[in-house]
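Ticket 4471: requesting a sanity check on a complex prediction with adenosine-5'-triphosphate. Repro inputs:
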Amino acid sequence: MSKLKIAIQKSGRLSEKSLELLKDCGIKISTSNRKLRTESSNFPIEILFLRDDDIPQYVEQGVADIGILGENEVWEKAKKVKQIRQLGFADCKLCLAIPKDEVYTNLSYFQDKKIATSYPHILRKFFQEKEINVKIEEIGGSVEIAPSIGLANAIFDIVSTGSTLLTNGLKQVVTVVESQAVLISNKNLDFEKQGIVNRLLFRIEAVKQSSENKYILLNAPNEKLEEIIALLPGMKSPTILPLAQEGWSSIHTVIKEDTFWDIIEQLKALGAEGILVLEIEKMIL
Ligand SMILES: Nc1ncnc2c1ncn2[C@@H]1O[C@H](COP(=O)(O)OP(=O)(O)OP(=O)(O)O)[C@@H](O)[C@H]1O
Ligand SMILES: O=P(O)(O)OC[C@H]1O[C@H](OP(=O)(O)OP(=O)(O)O)[C@H](O)[C@@H]1O
Ligand SMILES: [Mg+2]
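Returned structure tokens:
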């Protein structure tokens, strides 16, 4: 049986989360520092540890079948690969930033300015669409240093918390794109490999659903059941079980992580008691 080759970042911002995702999918992998290839003992997959910049090219060529990397690298390299699924980690933005004491008006500020970046392709496309002429200085890293050493007037780089900009005397003025980790695939996978990708995707879906949802249990007075149920969507609809105490019921359901604080406040206001919120290990819709 053939194995699916998955490329992940060897060491960097994406490495740990990529391995964790595979582990959460029940895929066992033994890792050691120096080994650049490894196989899973319980899933038909081989893992290649690579520089993230190289992953689009390898996936296009079929050296790797699928890969995990930032959308920013996928756009920058512009290789012919299929984007399968966003993965919800490594969230960041690609931004234009300038020295903090400069007065910024609008995009025309950048006319004829020199901008340092590791993302020349994305940047060139952006300014071409805006019909603004800029000079692009491509550098491999430590981009934030460029204005202070006289290499460029501005930078175009990854921003997350903004602390790198701040400590280097820069301020963000334009967000060009937002990015997160994504799963990409070769465009011509054979039937067998596509089957393995589908199995992997099914597991990723279950892992992601479980992290985005909470299981909640609560006790509610029967006269408020209707109003409380209206607040709780559930996978189909909530489960209602009578309590030993007359006039009360227990409600079980699943709610979205990002709405549960709002909903819980409303549930309490309607007289709900003994509210338990539990992590979901896996969730299959
Ligand atoms: N500060 C950040 N916060 C969130 N995500 C980030 C941050 N910096 C980078 N990323 C995301 O993680 C990816 C990898 O970042 P990293 O800094 O590890 O890359 P790299 O230095 O190019 O690594 P490599 O050695 O593999 O080429 C980026 O392409 C981006 O998608
Ligand atoms: O807005 P912040 O939270 O400060 O994050 C932004 C910084 O993070 C990334 O670099 P990283 O720390 O990964 O180092 P690298 O340049 O060596 O890749 C990126 O290149 C920025 O410099
Ligand atoms: Mg890189």
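Notes from triage: The pocket of magnesium ion (ligand 3) is lined by residues 51-53 (CB under 6 Å). Leaving this open until the requester confirms.
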